[in-house]
């Protein structure tokens, strides 16, 4: 089963047993960024004058990406990467459910619907088939340990892991410092395909900005 970047990132940010988001301050910005990168690498999204625009007539060929492409194409407002990282989860509600949909259908993830305190509906996605995530982690571990060079898609995925500080969790404890260093180097060094490298940097900056803002908001709230 070939997974798009957004599906791969979802597997990495979910707690395998609980099925909940374990990314610092929530993984939605990263997932939105992954969708934008998926669209860009498929030629369905272009960046011009700092704005992202849907390529007319493009057919990404994946249900989630088709819907995202249509939402961007139908928007009456031009947005940059930061704007779409913030907007896309609202356009694609329920967001994580949509990202997880094909993984659930293929039996990779389970789906559990509950209500917190009996009032607030929540959906969790515990792992049902560990195979796809195990294979993904093995590939990324080899990249982060310098055992091989990443593909363009792997470089994009690593770049999205950096804002959440998740790269270190893919290797043994003794190798975490080196893995984090290499992850940052890959994110900063243009290891992705040149055609999408500028967009990748814009999207990564947008994800970082979103996580920093969420961190600041949480800190301010806890201090009151």
Descriptive keywords:
yeast vps74-n-term truncation variant fold; 224 residues; two-stranded antiparallel ribbon; mainly alpha; single chain; two-stranded antiparallel sheet
Quick take:
55% of the residues lie in helices and 8% in strands.
Structural topology:
Elements: H1 5-13, H2 28-41, E1 45-48, E2 51-54, H3 63-74, H4 81-91, H5 95-105, E3 112-116, E4 120-124, H6 131-144, H7 152-161, H8 176-188, H9 194-222
Antiparallel strand pairs: 1-2, 3-4
Helix pairs in contact: 1-2, 2-3, 2-4, 2-7, 2-9, 4-9, 7-8
Describe the model.
There is one protein chain. The chain is built from nine helices and four strands, in the order ααββαααββαααα. The protein is mainly alpha-helical and 224 residues long. It has one domain (5-216): yeast vps74-n-term truncation variant domain like (yeast vps74-n-term truncation variant fold, Orthogonal Bundle). The strands form two sheets. A two-stranded antiparallel sheet has the order 1-2. Strands 3-4 form a two-stranded antiparallel sheet. The protein starts with a helix and ends with a helix. The model has no long low-confidence stretch (mean pLDDT 87).
